[in-house]
TrEMBL record:
Belongs to the pyridoxal phosphate-binding protein YggS/PROSC family. Pfam families: Ala_racemase_N. It comes from Lottiidibacillus patelloidae. Pyridoxal 5'-phosphate (PLP)-binding protein, which is involved in PLP homeostasis. It comes from the Bacteria. The lineage of its organism: Bacteria, Bacillati, Bacillota, Bacilli, Bacillales. Its cofactor is pyridoxal 5'-phosphate. The modification N6-(pyridoxal phosphate)lysine is found at residue 35. The keyword Acetylation does not apply. Residues 19-223 form the Alanine racemase N-terminal domain. One of its GO terms (molecular function) is pyridoxal phosphate binding. This is Pyridoxal phosphate homeostasis protein.
Length: 226
């Protein structure tokens, strides 16, 4: 069972990265990103011990959720169109892509309970990336401070897909530093204790820089669509 073997290897890498930085490995949660794989493979991940699943499209999420509801925490990691908020917001455990005020407003309107949200930050400034510009994040948090259904549990980013590991590291450090700034605002609905950063190619660096959630697709469950 290769998912199980991948997961063991990833856990070993996480353990080592944590040791280097004097972190507890229990601080790091692995999200298996199942957007490119079947329900069966997602099930294998759960059997291997994975506790969190991530999907980036509403249809993919609903397909997995229908069968695996209760067996894992569900993370919505893709851009969420406002008109689709109602389809997922009361089922997911975490939203990683809060990237605009209109989305926060729609969540406020549609959610029955407080939703754990990560603000998606565009740390690299690439046009192709979604997310709020780093310099606008504190303002954004202030604007939604009275929202009762939006809880800013942390910040999320996607580093650019580049070779230069030290450059990638600077983006993760920037997100960590921004997290500290948000925490210092002391806003009731923005404890901001989590950092969602790191994917198959860069999760080790992300953990060294403070990630508490890593979103791993291809290195863990593979990519059945290619
Ligand atoms: C697809 C995806 C991932 C996982 O990517 P891999 O490189 O396959 O690990 C992580 N985060 C987001 C937001 C994604 O869309």
């Amino acid at each position: 069972m290769t998912v199980k073997r991948n997961y063991e290897e990833i856990k070993e890498t996480i353990r080592n990265a944590c040791q280097r930085r004097n972190r507890q490995e229990t601080e790091v949660n692995v999200i298996a990103v199942t957007k490119y794989v079947s329900l069966k493979t997602a099930q294998e991940a759960i059997e291997a011990g994975v506790k969190h699943l991530g999907e980036n499209r509403v249809e993919g999420f609903l397909e997995k959720f229908e069968t695996l509801n209760g067996k894992a925490k569900f993370h919505f990691i893709g851009t969420l169109q406002s008109r689709k908020v109602k389809d997922v917001i009361n089922e997911i455990d975490y939203l990683h892509s809060l990237d605009r005020l209109s989305l926060a407003k729609e969540i406020e309107k549609r959610a029955e309970n407080e939703v754990n949200c990560f603000i998606q930050v565009n740390v690299s400034g690439e046009d192709s990336k979604h997310g709020i510009a780093p310099e606008d994040v504190k303002d954004f948090v202030e604007k939604i401070k009275d929202y009762s259904k939006v809880k800013v549990v942390g910040l999320m980013t996607m580093a650019p897909n580049i070779e230069d590991k030290e450059k990638i590291r600077t983006y993760f450090r920037d997100l960590k530093s921004l997290q500290m700034d948000v925490q210092a605002l002391n806003i009731r609905n923005a404890p901001c204790l989590e950092l969602s950063m790191g994917m198959s190619n860069d999760y080790e660096i992300a953990i060294e820089e403070g990630a508490t959630f890593v979103r791993i697709g291809s290195a863990l469950v593979g990519n059945e669509t290619i």
